[in-house]
Each structure stands twice: as structure tokens, then as C-alpha cells.
Amino acid sequence: MIELFVYLLCGSILVSGILAIQLASTLAAAVSAGLASLFAAVCYVMLGAPDVAMTEASIGSGLSILIFLYAIRRTTEKAR
Amino acid sequence: MAETILIVAAILIFLGVALGVLRLILGRTVVDRVAAVDMLTVVSISLIALYAHVGGRAIYLDVALVYGVLSFLAVLAIARYLEQGL
Prior knowledge:
The complex is a heterodimer.
Chain A (H helix, E strand, L loop, with lengths): L1 H21 L3 H21 L3 H30 L1
Helix pairs in contact in A: 1-2, 2-3
Chain B lengths: L1 H25 L3 H26 L4 H23 L4
Helix pairs in contact in B: 1-2, 2-3
């Protein structure tokens, strides 16, 4: 049961990573990268490391999307 | 009875993750993908809460709490970005 969820989460991490590389839109790619980090955090909880999962959720999924969006906005304004 | 409810919840969470990832792959617009990510966050929170109950460890609920607060922040940032605000 738990192994099935871990397999599903690992497959979702893989799909999110591939989408983060392949997608044309930078916003969708940044969101996909954050989603990979989100699934990794759930995987850490499943594997018994709640403190690592909390750090991953706060930094990887929350802060990195924010910084990515800020950077995308700033660089596209400069290029325009 | 409680066992049945837990199994049904696990099946629903499994289907939620699978269909959310499918929407993420197929999504035509960016907003579709952002909505899929928001739904996957909620499903992940429920998965952590379910695992905390099944495993009998209340410390995992703290992770779900942090998750809920920060997913709200991330979706808010994306919405501000789409409205040209950030």
C-alpha cells in the first residue's frame, strides 16, 4: 500500500522534472520544478524524515517558486 | 468501518494524484497547469495527514501544516505574477 504511493510519487517527480525541461512557457516550467520538489517532500515524509520534508516544503516548494517568478519578471523586463 | 474509510480515502488520493499529473501533462494553458499544481498540493496535504493517521505519528501533521501555509503563499505569488504585479 505504502510502496504503491512511493512508486506513484517517484513517477510524478520524474514527470514533473521532464515537464520542467520540456515546457515552452517559463512560468509553467518553474511551477513544474516546484511541483517536483513538493512530491519529493511527500516522499521524504513517507520514508520517515519529517524535518527534511518540512525544509524541502518551505524552501523548495515555497521560496524557490517565488524567487523564480521574481527573476523571470525582472529579466523579461530588461530584455524588452 | 474505519478501515474501509481509510482504504476509500487512499484510493481517492491515488486517483487525485494520477489525474492531477495527467492534467499537468495535457494542460493546454498555463492557468490549467497552475490549477493542477494547486489541486496536487491539497491532495499531498491530505496524503500526509492520512499517513500520519495510519502510521500513528502526530509529528507528520506539522509537516502538513507547514505545507498548507506555504502552498497558499506559492499560489498567491503565481496569481500576482499572472496579474503583472510581482
